[in-house]
Amino acid sequence: MIFYTTSIIFIQLSCIYSQTYESTQLIIGALIKKDDVAQEICFKKSIQAANKLLQQHDSTNHRFQLIPIIETIDGDDSFEATRKACQLIERQVIAIYGPSTPYASSAVQALCNQFGIPHLQIDWGYHQTSRGYALNVHPHYLAFGQALYDYVQKAEYWDTVAVIYSREESLLKFDYLLRTFDQPLILRKWDVSNDNQKYVIKQFKITQTHFRFIVDIPFWEIQEFLTLANAYNMTSQYYSYVFTDWDVQLVDPKAFESVQGANITTFTILHPMNEDSGYGVAALLDEIRVTALQDKRFTRSSTSRRISPVSYDVFVLIHQIILTHNDGAE
């Protein structure tokens, strides 16, 4: 699929050359939720990083530059997403990034399929049916589920598992685990909006039947989770927790001071590379986090704090495609 989408972008680039007489500016459009400050910052910073890579590695005089154009939409509005995507297409974008919500994303993907424009995605792929012109660099939910199963069953030899989740949609990530685990799994919903989370922790303490937990909640609620678990004496060495949010590294280290010996495990999609490897994502993420924390919209919001490193992967791939196409055209 990557090779197929690469060919599509080649075609898009060729069209731009013929229409704009080898213009160096290549427009990338983005559709982002109005309150998703983190995604907006990720998009802009990733474009900047990709432009730096283009300057470093382009041996010709074309001096390519990616130009970001952002359109915002309200929630998961497929009609508005389609309308905004049409506006981006009129501006001759070579690709459209986002949105991340399911119905809006499906509508934009259908439009991109119709016009032959690459649709750049960074979600779990829950709602994908026909990939078409889509390029999703995010790990697939089935692959994540298998990795989770391998860890708890084959590496840690857990004989019981309780899953605490905050969103019903996220349960698809555990599909493989639910179907494959040797014993029945307990599912409990975590909801801080109605104090449901206190009942969930209290029930596990009263029943004393589970000591191994997979916790799928936003990273900014982990401190409250650990504080509550500690209040019920559930952070001792007899307990184990796997947190599934990619951004656990953003949690204040002080949040873990309440842990009294429990085993804490997290997952990451970042490869342990240093700056000398040429990838450079670690420094970029640090820059994105600093920028986000300085933005008042980010610090006020409880729903727009996700910082996704795969945004960078999308535009590193775009930069490689552009250079490959340029070398082939010489």
From TrEMBL:
Query: Which Pfam families does this UniProt record tie to the protein?
Result: ANF_receptor
- Does this entry carry the keyword Transmembrane helix? yes
Q: Which InterPro entries match?
A: ANF_lig-bd_rcpt, Peripla_BP_I
Per the record, the domain of life is: Eukaryota
Q: Which GO terms describe its cellular component?
A: membrane
Q: Which UniProt keywords apply?
A: Membrane, Transmembrane, Transmembrane helix
Q: What is its main location?
A: membrane
Compartment(s) of residence: Membrane
Gene3D superfamilies noted in UniProt: 3.40.50.2300
Which residues belong to any copy of the Receptor ligand binding region domain? 55-317
Where in the sequence is the signal peptide annotated? none
Protein name as catalogued: Putative glutamate receptor, kainate
Task: Please report the organism this UniProt entry assigns to the protein.
Answer: Schistosoma mansoni (Blood fluke)
